[in-house]
Amino acid sequence: MKSFRLWFVGVLICGLGLTYAQFDAAFVPQIFAPDMLWAKWGNDLRNSHYNPNAQGPTNPRILWFQPGGLIDEPLVDNAAVLWAPVHPYSTGLRYTQYRLYGALRGGFLGSIGPFWGQATTPIIFQTAVYVRSDNGDFVDVIGNWPVLVFTGGQYDMTVYSPDPLGVADLYWVGNVGLPAYRSGLTAYTDGTSGYFLLGDNAGWIRPVMVFWVVAGNGSFPYLYIDAPIIGPDTTPPAGAVYGLTGSSQYSDLMISVHHSTNQIGAQIFAIDMTPLGAPSVMWGASLADLSRANPQDTTPIDSDTCDRPAVMSTDNQTIFLCATNSGRVYAVDALNGGAKLWVAELGQPIMAGPSLGPDPINGNEETLYVVTRTSPSRSTLVAIRAADGTVKWQRALGSVSRCTPTIDRNGRLFIGDDRGTLYAFNPDGTILWRRNLGAPIRVAPVLASIPVQGGPPVDVLYVAASNRMLYAFVETTPVRLPPGTGTGSGTGSW
Predict the structure, then answer these.
(1) Distance between CA 354 and CA 322 in Å, rounded?
(2) Is 353 in contact with 372 (CB distance < 8 Å)?
(3) DSSP letters along 36-102, please?
(4) pLDDT tens, position by position, 199-208
(5) How far is 47 from 282, CA to CA, in rounded Å?
(6) Which of 9, 212, 291, 446 falls 20 to 30 Å from 19 in CA-CA distance?
(7) What's the DSSP call for residue 493?
């Protein structure tokens, strides 16, 4: 188990309200409800980068800033705490950690780490608390219990869930001994217990079950963790698992994107998660097969990579993914064996995306956004109609961009480039505004609507620059905050 700063314990308890004087069977924690401010679980499990509950600034100003930056997207929970995966900016060491900030004030709350690897966005999901009688029978089940998972991107992993009895203020489980590598994290539920899903460099996919067991006599509870390995007869072929995408409605479907070690190139698999402990592959397809105009054609075709996660449509029926080098965008039918629906030939390598959100100018039709590299020094933002793959518009950026766009409730896009320019685009592709942060912007901006006691919520856009700075932008209209000051807050306007 990794060591943690002792003062973080108090911060987490006070900041998130996770202390319980006694076990209450009617208690359901609300801060980890499915409608997280910005999180995969229940909010963006589809990897859409669309937030229907928040609006980006029309005329931005800095609300606060902090050193440290980001190496992946932060999570914003319902207690208005921002969990930021970072490289420690002051130590010069190579380990990573998670830093916690007040999402509205920017005050530093504590840190978790170190992790030895590339820390990824933490994931919050929900599981069950099973209540057991003195004779060993299970007499009650409480759902919606919170679990957080932090990873260093290799064998480094920490699972946290508050103790239902309050016997221990924090209950940490150390390294579960499984590699996550570049797959990131996703989660699902069987209706009661919660699971998080891992993928590794050998192509193995592992669901990890997490739930609590407590006894009615008040004895010390325990957190049960089980990590079955999908057997060779059901796992996809060898090749690093890059992306794992889920459905916000169907717990029986997960999509994995693989880098193959052979000449097949990237492959995509749909995984049936319903058999408990033994998920199986429903169907699989290679990008090479999807690229052929005639499915019966067996002529060799150049393989390609797919280093972007797949995105699932709002109705959970269509999967969108990108071939990195050839510049192809694919739409496949998730419920019909991965049948190809359309292919968009962009002709340029794809650097970032895809994002998926509504276009309010055109009847809120779903629109896919990707970033292509049009020259050694320029990138282009491309809008694609999700229904048929038609390119709706293209807009050149001032520099190369590796930043996935974020979409607000009005269909506006927020994206950065390597020159440090932060752009806001209208749904028709016109520029709403641009600002320069002085260093490359490569992590997708994050947008959240932060609750304010006694007032309306405040919509905040979080943007990280590669000079290890993290900025929180709001609308220029003055924001009234409760009394107090935040660490590293900035009040100037552009």
Answers:
(1) 7
(2) no
(3) -SB-IIIIITT---B-TT----SSEEEEEEEET--SS--EE-TTSEEEEEE--TTT--S-EEEEEEE
(4) 777 777 777 8
(5) 21
(6) 446
(7) B
Q: Rounded CA gap, 193 and 494, in Å?
A: 48
Place of tokens 């039918």: 333
- Residue 351's contacts (CB-CB under 8 Å, 6 or more residues apart) are 371, 372, 373, 379, 400, 401, 402
- Alpha-carbon span 334 to 316, nearest angstrom: 8
Distances (CA, A) of 188 to 173, 277, 392: 20, 13, 34
- Structure confidence by residue, pLDDT tens digits, 317-363: 899 988 878 888 999 998 888 888 999 999 899 999 899 999 999 99
Residue 144 phi/psi, 5° resolution? Answer: 60, 35
Quote the CA–CA distance of 365 and 392 in Å, as a whole number.
Answer: 11
Angle at 418 between CA 417 and CA 420, to 5 degrees: 75
Return d(Cα 478, Cα 142) in angstroms, integer.
43
Strands (DSSP E) along 174-264, which ranges? 186-189, 194-199, 205-215, 222-226, 239-246, 253-260
Q: Write down the residue that tokens 């669901």 correspond to.
A: 207
